[in-house]
Amino acid sequence: xxxxxxxxxxxxxxxxxxxxxxxxxxxxxxxxxxxxxxxxxxxxxxxxxxxxxxxxxxxxxxxxxxxxxxxxxxxxxxxxxxxxxxxxxxxxxxxxxxxxxxxxxxxxxxxxxxxxxxxxxxxxxxxxxxxxxxxxxxxxxxxxxxxxxxxxxxxxxxxxxxxxxxxxxxxxxxxxxxxxxxxxxxxxxxxxxxxxxxxxxxxxxxxxxxxxxxxxxxxxxxxxxxxxxxxxxxxxxxxxxxxxxxxxxxxxxxxxxxxxxxxxxxxxxxxxxxxxxxxxxxxxxxxxxxxxxxxxxxxxxxxxxxxxxxxxxxxxxxxxxxxxxxxxxxxx
Length: 332
Prior knowledge:
Layout: H1 2-8, E1 18-23, E2 26-27, E3 31-32, H2 39-50, E4 54-59, H3 65-73, E5 79-84, H4 87-90, E6 96-98, E7 103-105, E8 107-112, E9 127-131, H5 135-142, E10 146-150, H6 153-162, E11 167-171, H7 172-181, E12 185-189, E13 197-204, H8 208-221, H9 225-232, H10 235-239, H11 250-262, H12 264-267, H13 287-296, H14 312-327
Parallel strand pairs: 1-4, 1-5, 9-10, 9-11
Antiparallel strand pairs: 2-3, 5-13, 6-13, 7-13, 8-11, 8-12
Helix pairs in contact: 2-8, 2-9, 11-14, 13-14
């Protein structure tokens, strides 16, 4: 029982205790071998520290579950994070045990901070983006909502930014990760306990002592360390309720779509500006001044003329949308 020896003892040569984790090298927010390790790697590191062990990582793609579980079964690692604690998952895996849960995965609505959806009911008559073959996809389909299906989470959220969909339904870790990196959007938990999934770590069933140690560590970390890690990656943000969004008129919904597709690349999805362009929420001129600036551009800057490319009415509507964005209490 390799893991027990490594965790519970120190070799005669004085080797440090260690816990070996299998993790995907490119799967943020869960795990990454780059600068940001991912919340599951950070949690595994905290568990190892609680066990007075050093964490080492065996990097392996996790897209195919059978491959990563084989790494665990063959002893290349002692721990794999991120599995649902459900009978349906463990019933056909007799050599696997799951730890106590370290977080709960929930279904979440992601939409604009202004005029966006905050519940499934708000999604009636709206276009909803989902990732194919996921619990979110199943949920939206069961509710009879108008959905557009995408292959990856990135493609799904890209559709939201471009205005192809009005909202996205997604699992809380992915939703929170997106919101923390894209101002102007909020995530709201759907609040359906039947859809909640407790998530734990997998160990070999033969490593019963290790499982008990990991469970104790998770309990020890639950009060402060786990919420801190989950919060940094937006997981807990996505599970909090959001204030109701002020409804947008049809004109402003169209303006939001135009802004997201034509303007947000430079000015940001929240119109607060980027290194390439100014903060439009801070614009102090009149609507006529805004129209003139957009149509004529600003010589010497990256702001090129948009006259003939966006209609005068649409530019005025964008100005009104930005004004509401700047005053809406639900904005980030």
